[in-house]
Task: structure prediction
Amino acid sequence: MIVMGIVIGSGIFLTTGIMAKSLPSPGLILLAWIIGGILSMAGAMAYAELGAAMPQTGGQYIYLKEAYGSLSGFLFGWTMFLVYQTGSIAALAVAFAEYFGYFFPILSTNRIIFSTAFTIFNHSFQYSLSAGQIMGIVVIILLSLFNFIGLVLGSIIQNILTILKIGAIVAMVGLGFIIGKGGDIEFHFAPAGFSLSNLIMGFGVAMIAIIWAYDGWNNVNFAAGEIKNPKRNLPLALILGISGITALYIAVNYIYLYALPIDEMIGVTRVAEKVATALFGGIAASLISAAVMISILGSLNGTILTGPRVYYAMAKDSLFFKRVANVHPRFRTPAFSIFLQAVWACLLTLSGTFEQLITYVIFVTMIFYIAATASVFTLRKKYPNLSRPYKTWGYPLVPLLFIIALSVIVINTLINKPVESIAGLSVVVIGIPVYYYWKSKKR
Result:
């Protein structure tokens, strides 16, 4: 439920119409989603071995630290806290508010409650605060409070929201075929006016969006220390979760293509709403908005649940604020870690800069994914006698496939978005002196 709940957010409801702009081919769109699932499964199998061998709270932080030293683990956790995890929480919270505003316009992101202009170093800046941002902060605080009270309560909320979102997706697909007004799908792989080089470039652009839509499956490893029988259940959670996500994603995209010709899908952001309207009529748009809202809420809760476990592990190694390593005596949760994450995520929500920040660190996050997957090779050599209840299926080809595929995407991102990539690297570089500060405090 954590794996599926975090991964299935808003991406599946928004991505395909944007993909169709650079890849106007039903066959290639479905192929891209299938490849995205295969790559995610390849990465998940590597993480399953790491999680089963080292079932400790902190996940990827632990693997990087053990494979390459404490600096690499710290830089991952630093980037997560400063931008990636907290920025994702802010983005999901505001996205939830945007869909919530569909039903209650007074709380939407379009309702500006404060606006001002100011100048810094002869550069003028415009700042505005919307009701949607306030709504996002309220949701972050409430879900953080639920996860503070206990992992059991947080996981119950996660299970309920995930069941609801899976049910909504299955209903949309099933009813789409039974009573929907669709047509035949033309599975052409060579759209008119597109050369082979255009298609290859378009496929590459589409894969970046798809990797983002599949992102988040590794978060379950952060809470490995609190999973019952993690040596068995963690690999099962990853493999079954990714399998379920891939099946749902392919089914949803099939119904998109069944409902709308590819020409009508190109550039449409809220493609799920347009498809539901085409299949079932006007009222369906409201139902889809409700489904997306629940889906985003589930993803937000899972992100809030798992992130504090990384900062907790860092603090246990004396590489973060000491209080972050405290466990609440009654609720048995990393209480201060949850509190600190909530505060910083709320500040990012107020700033309105979270989307730019996430864009900057996506490049770096993929590098951390590559490094963690490569640690399967490093740790097998470094700790040959370590108990490995689960070993990566298809080793060494499967983890190599994931590493090569993500390396191609990283190089493509560096070429096409050099400014954002360098900005992301600068966030990591700033963490180096911070690391040595914490090391000196530890000594």
About this structure: The longest helix spans residues 70-103. The chain has one domain: 2-116+128-442. The chain has a mean pLDDT of 88. The domain at 2-116+128-442 is CATH 1.20.1740.10 (Amino acid/polyamine transporter I).
